[in-house]
Amino acid sequence: MVEEALDRGADILLTFSTPVTQIAANITKEMDDPPLLFFAIVSAPYTSGIADASCIKMPHVTGTHLTIPYKQYVALSKLQMPDVQTIGTIVDTAQGNSVYGVNQITKFAEELGLTVEAAPIVSAADLPQATASLADKGVDMLMIGLGYTEARGIPAIIGVAEDYGIPVFGASPRSIHLGALVGAGFDDLYGEGVTVGRMIAAYIDGALDVSKTGISSRVDLSVAVNLDTAEEFGVTVADAILDQAVMVIEDGELKVLSAPPRLSEMTLEEHKAQTTAFLAELECTPERIAEQQAQLQNAEE
Measured in Å, how far apart are the chain's first and last C-alpha atoms? Predict the structure, then answer.
């Protein structure tokens, strides 16, 4: 897909998701005169080789990094099951966003005094066996990260977890469409489009130098609940989770309880003023670059 775009002479590549952006970055970094690469809906740019930090990156690359507040996501486990002891999760070690998600789930679960069991997979075909192995280890619930294979393989995971009565959480509100009991994570896809759209428009307008523009970071936590799954599993969703829900599936129908904000009407001058302020926050100044280089060096040591 990336090579086809390059063969057609693309001046700009706009990629979505960590895997596609990772591929585009790997291909274009070998080119003498690469097209610009703008990305969105990427959850792990700094562990997937896309960049080292927001300003420590290839000069033709920038975009928007969606940040899932895994600490809040993991905390939902205690709200749903106060006596939870062990959380199970699944990791595809070949995917940077999968490894990152499992590391974050493990980190914040352990801070809550919980034990985490992680089952490795190589492909979607491994999901049923991985789920069964976690069930045999006595996990109380499954919390799935945003790795491409496991996140989209939630139906296969649930097919086994239901036999054991183990509830499944997904790190995206959209997970409830796949049968997850609770989905919680980043859901402002509209906002991602606005952010990367502003970047590209500013570049076309001559107001953005990609080499000096850092990667934007956007944080969002939206909670969704599948009450049909709750009924099938014979569990009651905690009121503390229902109170946070922006979407609910009940009797096969999706109910949107709270929609994310949309870009308001504004004049071209107002739009440019907002974009100028936005870009100023992303400027990779020498001081900012030096600070990030120092942080990376300290992390290595």
Answer: 39
Between 225 and 67, the higher pLDDT residue: 225
The CB density around residue 132, as the number of other CB atoms within 10 Å, is: 15
**Residue pLDDT, tens place only, 99-111:** 989 999 999 999 9
β partners of residue 218: 66
Q: Where are the beta strands (DSSP E) in 7-96?
A: 12-16, 36-42, 61-67, 86-92
Return the ∠ at Cα 201 (arms to 198 and 205), rounded to 5°. 135
Give the Cα separation of 45 and 38 in Å (integer).
12
Please list the residues that pair with 185 across neighbouring strands. Answer: 222
Question: What is the C-alpha to C-alpha distance for residues 147 and 214, in angstroms, rounded to an integer?
Answer: 24
List domains and CATH numbers for the chain. Answer: 2-68+188-219+264-300 (3.40.50), 70-185+221-256 (3.40.50.2300)
Q: Model's pTM, two decimal places? A: 0.80
> What are the tens digits of pLDDT across the range 195-223?
999 999 999 999 999 999 999 998 888 99
